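#structure-requests
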Amino acid sequence: MKRAGFTLVELLIVIAIIGVLAGLVMAAVTRANAKAKEAVAKTMIDNIRTAMTNYHEDVGYYPSGGAENDEGIINLVLALYDPSEAEGGKGGPNSPYYDFKESDLEPSKSSSGSKVLIDPWGSPWRYVRARDAAGNIKDGVHSRHSYDLWSIGPNKIDDHGEKDIKNDKDDIASWQ
């Protein structure tokens, strides 16, 4: 007797194999996507670091700011993009220091009319200048002579720049 097609068991085996392969591909794509977003965040930090160095050389200080209520990142965006609007109203020959892409900015939730720089996961970056207006080092800063800049990472929990995957701390910071 001649067979005209596949049996139900053979079809189920083929479907199961395709399912396993699809699962493996999806896991690999998810891991690659996560690594790509982390690489984008690190590249943004490097680019902003260069702009901040130029700003500091021209103006003599880093933009003011703390991490609360988007204050720091709003000041950073203003200082690097339009120094005439930032603290002191100074700008150097390199203005603007950083040309932010519109897709990297979104309206601040805490300050109407202001824009914040968002990380690859859609959360505002955090920025703190290391010293207050009197020149005193602020508590909790890591880069004691400049500034702290960090993304809160994929878990969207602000760990104040700490990265410890074992303890679910996944921030990406300028001092790491």
